[in-house]
Design brief:
Blueprint (H helix, E strand, L loop, with lengths): L1 H19 L6 H13 L3 E10 L6 E9 L4 E9 L2 E10 L2 E5 L6 E4 H8 L13 H6 L2 E9 L2 E8 L1 H4 L10 E8 L5 E8 L2 E8 L13
Antiparallel strand pairs: 1-2, 1-11, 2-3, 3-4, 4-5, 5-6, 7-8, 8-9, 9-10, 10-11
Length: 216
Amino acid sequence: MFRKLLIVLVIALVSACSSGQAALPEGPDLIAKSAEAMKALKSASFAIATEGKISSIPLKSADGRILAAGDAEGKLQLDVFGTLQEFSFVLLGPDVYFKGPTGGYQKMARQALLQTLNYDPSAILAPSTGFALLLTQAKDVKVEAAESGSYRVALTFPAQQLGKLIPGVSQDVKAQVWIDQATSRLTKAVLPLEGGSVILTLTDFDAPVTITPPAS
């Protein structure tokens, strides 16, 4: 009798624990909601870091603030012929203010400089190139777990679209992203590539941001 009672108690405890765990959402539905949430963003802060040695990615790090309308400001580090160099930038309308390792800011046509660098940080929030579009093109979507208020999601990003955000990507990437449970916004993406990983984080969503020309 005692053994039967113990079994019943164990089953009841297991059932209670199982019922207390919220079911994970379906991957495609979650990604669709996240795409809509990213499309609605007006501004964000971003940080990109490269771990390991990825020879195909000249961008090694970047951080700054961006507006969905296209203006942005921040710093980036690029591998220029084997040498790591830091640059500051302000993207403002058709112009870019650009400061290299030495000297002050130079004003250039935005398109000319972006073609030279092959990198446009404002693309992260742009409706036509950013994560709002990239998420809609993701494949093999699977919600893996709930972590600290976010859902960890495994998926595959197509190279053609991802390359507009991370120049140098030439193959589809099996990645992980973190989606905020409360807002459905993408807060982090880990992109494993040959030789290492690229990690992108987004914060300060819709915080007031005013981009102005640099003082000098």
